[in-house]
């Protein structure tokens, strides 16, 4: 897998939550914090985001439909 640095907008789209929900999850310790970049801005490693998705999915319950 190739490493990509994601902006908040991309992270929110990737995990299918709003940006405000992602910020709340970061504040509550439920989502990893991004890294401050030397030229400004905050980015998340695509690997970190994918790992969070896999972990969250593995821990989730099956939906009863």
From TrEMBL:
Pfam families per record: Phage_AlpA
Superkingdom as given in the UniProt entry: Bacteria
Gene3D superfamilies tied to this protein: 1.10.238.160
InterPro entries: AlpA (IPR010260)
UniProt protein name: AlpA family transcriptional regulator
Source organism per UniProt: Vreelandella nigrificans
């Amino acid at each position: 897998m190739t490493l990509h640095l994601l902006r908040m907008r991309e992270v929110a789209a990737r995990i299918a939550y709003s940006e405000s929900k992602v910020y709340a999850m970061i504040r509550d310790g439920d989502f990893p914090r991004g890294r401050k970049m030397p030229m400004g801005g905050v980015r998340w490693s695509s690997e970190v985001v994918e790992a969070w998705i896999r972990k969250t999915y593995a821990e989730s319950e099956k939906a009863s439909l």
